[in-house]
Write a structure and sequence with these properties.
The protein is an alpha+beta fold and 420 residues long. It contains twelve helices and 23 strands. Bound molecules: adenosine monophosphate and glycine. Adenosine monophosphate binds at residues 118, 141, 150, 153, 155, 184-187, 191, 213, 270, 281-282.
């Protein structure tokens, strides 16, 4: 089968790496891809937000299965466009992608499904939002309603911060995403991510992980897209997994089906756990980045069978073959990220690194120029390793990181601290 993956980050590199290991994979094409992906797949330079362009390319290249990595094409309806062309697709259509693309939509679904989450209110004008914040007091959480590349959430520890966030959002600094806001109760507890494949009916958990959102050691500094991850997350005990499935995910998926917009794809459940009770922080409708990298390292080639069964609505016929293993991924980012940073700096030392089912460096923002790998983005490399326990995965990943010669890059030295 010819397979096409849409996206260009470390998430898509890890999906390509795992899918390529499955003997069912013939040609593997990634659009647009990056320098690391180009070492194991063909890269196609097409605009992945343009459903017509993707459909035409897929038809011309006899693609049998399309896997959509990021949220933007899902929210833009690219999965619907490809399905209309008769293609097999992994990822939700536009209506179901609202679970990530609209925070107020998700809150309304949680209400209807009776799923535990933070209490909230939804506003379309600044004055009522300010009055609500003054009445509730801090800490409180202000969220732009729409997609804001992970930057639309302000966890305000003071009332002043929350009011300033309202000013920013209604002043247009978040574009259309901020024209509506959701204001939420601040939840305390430990965060974890839970990934569940869903074909509209059947649920299949494919792993838990913990991300590290802040830029610097000790969970300090600005919020980022994620500076490292590990899987499994010890806080996700069997009992909490079961509660999350029974109380949050199953009712959500049933409610989506009832509305005529069944969810097909991977549901990325951001959970807050306190006193043995999970509550929903947010849904994403795609794998996390860098969480995907640790999940793919643990799942390997079987992931193709799982994603295909999901797209073909036969998840009830497959199961996950788990090894008792752990994986950890360190993000190397350009100095200055998530603020401004230099582009085009040269990365050395990649050639000497081990590359096997226990060690892999996934590329995010890289490109190749005259045989040299250069950094083109904020998050650039995901140094990922697997071990029999987290300590072993941690040691292997940090040993690899030390072998990389990129003076303009940085990484956190404490990935996995909470579990180690
Ligand atoms: P989100 O984009 O909704 O995941 O929010 C980004 C981050 O903000 C989450 O990962 C949490 O760390 C934090 N957050 C979001 N909502 C809440 C909440 N209601 N209470 C506490 N922290 C929150
Ligand atoms: N690492 C968080 C995300 O992918 O949204």
């Amino acid at each position: 089968m010819n397979i096409m993956i849409l996206g260009s980050g470390g998430r898509e590199h890890s999906l390509a790496w795992a899918i390529k290991q499955n003997p069912k994979c013939d040609r593997l094409i990634v659009a647009p891809g990056n320098a690391g992906i180009a070492m194991l797949a063909e890269c196609a330079d097409i605009n992945i937000l343009d459903g017509d362009a993707v459909a035409t390319f897929a038809e011309e290249n006899a693609v049998g299965f399309v896997v959509i990595g990021p949220e933007a094409p899902l929210a833009a309806g690219v999965a619907d466009r490809l399905r209309a062309a008769g293609l097999l697709v992994f990822g939700p259509g536009q209506a179901a992608a609202q679970l990530e693309a609209s925070k107020s939509f998700t809150k309304a679904i949680c209400d209807a499904a009776n799923a535990p989450t933070a209490a909230y209110a939804h506003f379309t004008d600044a004055d009522s939002a300010r009055a609500y914040i003054r009445a509730q007091g801090a800490p409180i959480v202000v969220k732009a309603d729409g997609l804001a590349a992970g930057k639309g959430v302000i966890v305000a520890m003071t009332e002043e911060e929350a009011l300033a966030a309202i000013d920013d959002m209604f002043d247009g600094s978040f574009g259309d995403a901020g024209a509506e806001v959701v204001i939420e109760e601040f939840m305390e507890g430990e965060e974890a991510s839970f990934f569940v494949l869903c074909d509209g009916k059947t649920l299949l958990p494919v792993g838990t992980a913990q991300d590290h959102k802040r830029a610097y050691d000790g969970d300090t500094g600005p919020n980022t897209g994620g500076m490292g991850a590990y899987s499994p997350a010890p806080v996700m005990s069997d009992a909490i997994i079961q509660k999350a499935l029974d109380e949050i995910i199953r009712p959500t998926v049933d409610e989506m089906a009832k509305r005529g917009t069944p969810f097909q794809g991977v549901l990325f459940c951001g959970l807050m756990i306190q006193n043995g009770q999970p509550r929903l922080v947010e849904y994403n409708v795609r794998f996390g980045d860098p969480e995907c990298q640790v999940l793919m390292m643990r799942l390997g080639g079987q992931v193709l069978d799982l994603l295909q069964a999901c797209a073909e609505t036969r998840l009830d016929q497959v199961s996950v073959n788990w090894a008792a293993d752990h994986a950890l991924s360190i993000v190397m980012a350009a100095k200055g990220y998530p603020g401004s940073y230099d582009k085009g700096t040269v990365i050395n030392g990649l050639d000497n690194q081990p590359e096997d089912s226990f060690h892999m460096i996934f590329h995010a923002g890289t490109s190749e120029n005259a045989g040299q790998i250069t950094a083109t983005g904020g998050r650039v490399l995901n140094i990922t390793a697997r071990g029999h326990d987290l300590t072993e995965a941690h040691e292997k990943a940090y040993a690899m990181a030390q072998g990389i010669d990129w003076p303009e890059g940085f990484y956190r030295s404490d990935i996995g601290w909470r579990a180690l």
